Amino acid sequence: MKIEKEHLCHGGRLLYCSHDSQATKTSMRFSVFLPPQATKGDVPYILFLSGLTCTEDNFTTKANAYQNAAKQGVAIIAPDTSPRGDDVANDDAYDLGQGAGFYINATQEPWDAHFQMEDYIIKDLLPLVEGELPLLPRKSITGHSMGGHGALTLYFKYPSLFQSCSAFSPIVAPSQVPWGHKAFRAYLGDDQAEWQNHDACALVSKAQDASDNAPILIDQGKADDFLEGQLKSHLFADACQNAGQALTMRMHDGYDHSYFFIQSFMDDHIDWHVGYLS
Questions:
Q1: pLDDT single digits (tens) 113-139
Q2: Neighbours of 41 (CB within 10 A)
């Protein structure tokens, strides 16, 4: 792991890092906030997964998360959203290719060569940061939009790994919306049964003992331009109710899909996770 830049931030340290990933076969970038408590011992952490077009820097500069994280003594890890580079496959559109990894393992050419984002997060990034930074192996997961999809699906795929889960404006049913159709067909092929293995609504429906899971927190703006066509929050609410998964879904008048929305409720999400990480 290479620390490329370091800043003091709310009494803690903000690190911009890179490392060579075995999963993606590229150099991957991520940002780390270590609260001041990390100078005295290992701290728990929150993994934040960003949305389409984002990098490891969007959350750092726009989410306004670190003051409360410093107060609560929790670290935050924010990875990039895809592999990048001249040798990495790409698409001219914003919703496929570089910046749009969807946190899954691609099986189709040309994407399968590098787009192994699920393995990157689970097998590369988490062991790396826990091994080289003052972090406890106690962690929670959250994310926005495509990253909200990633947070929910990884939470259900690896139920013993994360203490809690939350999301802002998540894509909850990618197999039923245009963003998901485009990405899943490119990355996974035409077998829609395979798509279900990466769909939060399908995963909660198949989860064993969903009633034993920690409650999930979702915040969604009612003025979000993507709500009806791409996000379809109500589908996840229905799936959770049927599966016995506890869910707090807060719908907010006037809020859109932007980081201004995330800023408005970021403290609530940090507090939510600290309750399970303590």
A1: 999 999 999 999 999 999 999 999 999
A2: 9
The amino acid sitting at 86 is D
pLDDT tens digits along 45-55: 999 999 999 99
- Phi–psi pair at 264, nearest 5 degrees: -65, -25
**pTM of the full structure:** 0.97
124 among known catalytic residues: no
Beta strand 216-221 with 247-252 is: parallel
CB 7 within 8 A of CB 52: no
Nearest to 162 by CA among 144, 194, 136: 136
What are the boundaries of each domain within the chain? 2-277
Quote helix, strand, coil % in the chain, to nearest 5: 40, 25, 35
Q: Domain 2-277 maps to which CATH number in 3.30.310.250, 3.40.50.1820, 3.30.420.40, 3.30.1360.70? A: 3.40.50.1820
Out of 224, 233, 269, 273, pick the active-site residue. 224
Contact between residue 204 and residue 173 where contact means Cβ atoms under 8 Å apart: no
Q: How far is CA 195 from CA 65, 107, 115, 133, 222, in A?
A: 33, 12, 16, 35, 27
Per the annotation, the verdict on 198 as an active-site residue is no
Query: Do residues 221 and 257 lie in contact, with contact meaning Cβ atoms separated by under 8 Å?
Result: yes
Q: Is 264 a catalytic residue?
A: no
Q: Which of 114, 198, 257, 269 is catalytic?
A: 257
Give the active site residue among 31, 145, 169, 233. Answer: 145
Cα separation of 128 and 22, whole Å?
12
Residue 114 is predicted with a pLDDT of 98
pLDDT (tens digit, 9 = 90+) per residue, 59-88? 999 999 999 999 999 999 999 999 999 999
Q: Are 206 and 159 in contact (CB under 8 A)?
A: no
